[in-house]
Amino acid sequence: MSLCLPGDEIPLNGLQPGIGVALDSDSGRAFATTAGVLRSDDEVRVENLRKRYVPRKGDCVVGIVMGRTADFYKVEIRAPSPAFLPTLSWNGATKRNRPVLEIGTLVYARIEAAHPDLDTELTCIDPDTKKSWSTGEVLLGELKGGLSFEVALSAAQRLLDVDCFILDRLGKDFAYELCVGQNGRVWLSAPTARETVLLLQAIKRSFGMTNVQIEAMVGKMVEVFS
């Protein structure tokens, strides 16, 4: 096991940089962007060792509504303290036309502001679309139905990888929606409750498995539904 710190140069050895590794386009050298364990398999990545999530501006998180006032929602994001989500921080929201979230509702939000001495601010405004929250077609917002579960921050990083083997493999045979928060909370929804539970279990079991073992596990799942 090799530990590294932010700024440490990382040898790629012909592999692609993954999460936690940044490539300097001018020099072609790679550097760690976070402290953690260096892993090399299909890519080179740094798995964060933090057990408690520390909010960072720009992160996308899955939170749980804990309370509400006229102006904001109080949201639990697996951080040392709750965050707040303004009630108008949604695409196209107005005082007369805005989401009404109940206690316990799951939301997929982006961290708008994070400071050690101030409350973390969330937003569900997606700058990449002009669609209103009311269409249900905006990336950020309320997560309806499905199930949520928590994983280690390092496991969340692996699920967020563009080439995550378990998610790619499941997607070949199963239809599902997935939101992975950088805070280690994951939301999953499939066409039936049974599929949702089995897919959730498969993802949780995949951590520590090789790609060959994952392939065998998913193959058995396909047989169950065939």
Automatic annotation (TrEMBL):
Gene3D superfamilies according to UniProt: K Homology domain, type 1 (3.30.1370.10), Nucleic acid-binding proteins (2.40.50.140)
GO BP annotations listed: CUT catabolic process; exonucleolytic trimming to generate mature 3'-end of 5.8S rRNA from tricistronic rRNA transcript (SSU-rRNA, 5.8S rRNA, LSU-rRNA); nuclear polyadenylation-dependent rRNA catabolic process; poly(A)-dependent snoRNA 3'-end processing; TRAMP-dependent tRNA surveillance pathway; U4 snRNA 3'-end processing
GO molecular function, one term: RNA binding
K Homology domain location: 146-193
Compartment list: Cytoplasm; Nucleus, Nucleolus
Key words of the record: Cytoplasm, Exosome, Nucleus, RNA-binding, rRNA processing
The keyword Lipid biosynthesis is assigned to this record: no
Classification via InterPro entries: Exosome_RNA_bind1/RRP40/RRP4 (IPR026699), KH_dom_type_1 (IPR004088), KH_dom_type_1_sf (IPR036612), NA-bd_OB-fold (IPR012340), RRP40_KH-I (IPR049469), Rrp40_S1 (IPR037319)
Superkingdom of origin: Eukaryota
GO cellular component terms, semicolon-separated: cytoplasmic exosome (RNase complex); nuclear exosome (RNase complex); nucleolus
SUPFAM superfamilies reported in the protein's UniProt record: Eukaryotic type KH-domain (KH-domain type I), Nucleic acid-binding proteins
Pfam families xrefs: KH_6, RRP40_S1
Keyword Nucleus among record annotations: yes
Family: Belongs to the RRP40 family.
Name of this chain's protein: Ribosomal RNA-processing protein 40
